[in-house]
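Exercise 3.2. Students should predict the tertiary structure of the chain below and write it as structure tokens, then compare their answer with the key that follows.

Predict this chain's 3D structure.
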Amino acid sequence: MNKHILYSFRRCPYAIRARWALRESLVKVELREVDLKNKPVDLIKNSQNKTVPLLILKNGEIIEESLDIILWTLSNSKKSDLKKYFPNNLKEEILNIIRENDQEFKFHLDRFKYASRFDEKDKEYHFYEAQNIIKNWNFLLKDNPKRNFWLVGENETIADWCIWPFVRQFKIACEHQKIDNHFDDSMIRWLNYFETNNNYKDVMNKYEIWNQSSKVSYFPLNI
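Answer key:
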């Protein structure tokens, strides 16, 4: 292979955060947009989880957890200043809050946003549980009056990268269901930083669904 290959799905928050790291790190890959209802054979064959994101390196190595893709990206970028996003003195705190997002917030988010797939009567409970986690994160942001207010420490880290796509999903779900006042000011400002960032348009660019006869598409677009 001439390029690393990323199997992705535009709206998947795990894939979004992997693409964000690739864009921030200026690591170029061949991007293959996936139809999750009709997954490519290569994705199914190479992924134990059978889902995105899946990164296949030029040497054939497979990385299929989004956090592992992010950490690989930081270590394999030509940019020299990326250690600041995962500093040694904050690694445990960063990984703990990412774990809270992936194991707890995502659980309640899915059961609120996709209540019809689970138990509709528990929808309100899962909304409030997700909102309580959001409120705790808002306290972290409010207590950190540096620059744009970050979740861990005084600077932007991969904790922010990993969590904002899920907070964005929560916001979209609330808007669709006409739920107002779902965020406090600090959370609104923090999410707005990512949604108005120069990288956002590139990360959320629409790609045609990939198949074996597709023209090769690359990500990021502008490097």
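Discussion points: The chain has a mean pLDDT of 93. Residues 149 and 215 are 41 Å apart (CA to CA).
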